[in-house]
Hints:
A: 3 helices, 0% strand, B: globular
Amino acid sequence: MGILPYLILSALLFTIGTVGVIVKKNVIAIFLCIELMLNAANLSFVAFSSYLGQTHGQIFVFLVMVVAAAEAAVGLAITIALYRNRKTLSVDDADIMKW
Amino acid sequence: MEIWLFYLFGGIALISAVSVVAQRRLVYSAISLIVCLCALSGIYLLLKAQFIAAVQVIVYAGAIMVLFLFVIMLLDPFSPPVLTDKRKRLGYVGASMGGIALVLLYPLLKAYDLSKVPHEPETLVPASDVQRIGHALFTDYLLPFEVTSILILVGIIGAVVLAKKQA
């Protein structure tokens, strides 16, 4: 069994995440879908890392997880600030920076 | 055996990923994502990446998702789904975009002939040896590793500043 099935699974997960980002309107739901996309990319990294027998891919996954953690912390803080100021979680209502 | 485990974990991951998008309540979405992350951790084990599998469960499903659940419960625990779809068309747009993305990804996967990539699976030491990862992390990747800690620090400070009540 090669790594092609893993790559296909990764592509499917990434697509599902993309669809979620487009379809969802709740900020936190969009965040969850972005996490899904990050994990799909991670799966590709690990698959290639295992296929090539190198650790580099896994180190990248490690770094991606750190970035995801930082992104979640800052993003959720922004969400809380948004909810406190505008009493909404909808991206459609967060249009104050739109001109 | 490997292929059946792949189908099992992959199926769970796909179903729960669809559930993340399909659920209307955020808590269910988040819990579906946790299931998806755990299934992916099983797939990492299949790929002999034990370290990443453990980190996936401990850090991702354990820490990041708890942060998400914490904020979800802080903001709207039992309110009716905030966003009933006013625009049904958005769903069709999303589905067609997903279809286009798959159509674009398929030839990429097809065109890339994996057998041409040089690799020697016979001579491998297990790629996921924690010792090897740790060694690489503190030699070749020392600078990115340290930059990572600065990133975390910036994230912490940013989160505190943003979420603080304005005086």
